[in-house]
Every structure is written in C-alpha cells, then in structure tokens.
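FW: tagging you since you asked about this chain on Friday. Here's the raw sequence from the shared folder, copied in full. Didn't touch anything.
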Amino acid sequence: MEERMTFKVFDDNGKEIECEVLFTFESEETKKNYMVYTDNTKDEQGNIKVYAAIYEPDKDETKLEPITSDYEWKIIEKILEELQEEAKKSVEAMGEDE
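HL: got it, structure written out here
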C-alpha cells in the first residue's frame, strides 16, 4: 500500500487542517519546484479542491510560497489536465478488461 504524504496548516481562524500531497514536480521552464495538494474538501460541483504552491525540497522546514504568475498556473493546469486524461484512459482500459 502506498503511503500518503500529509502536512498540517492552520486556517485564518487557527483551525488545524490536514492536507495531502498529490504530487510534486520541478519545472524545466521556471527552474522551480511545485507541490500540488488537497485538503479533501469539495467545491459546489462536488469536485475535490486542489491547490498548488512553490516549495524548496532541500530545506529542512518546508515553506509554501504562493504562485503569482499566470504562466506558472498554466504549467500546473496543463499537468493536471494530462494526469486527468491518463486516469480517464486507465479507467476506460480497466472497463474493457472485464
């Protein structure tokens, strides 16, 4: 069984929230490392909310930095779309095996 990577943050009211790391990657274009994570809450359409931030994997204490550039958001959105496509194909392939 795959181990979940989690971390805790505090919201504006001081409430502790557990977040789960979905994946991390380094962009060849920006030379930055990104973390995509969720707090497993859902939006109005019932989709799980996903967040992203810049981080430095070599630091002892992980500090998440906000992503402020539209260009960086486009990189992350493209990766998320590719992962969704792969997951969709995987599910469809599993259905064909039955």
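FW: Strands lie at 6-10, 16-26, 33-38, 51-55.
HL: agreed, and The chain has a mean pLDDT of 89.
FW: great, closing this out.
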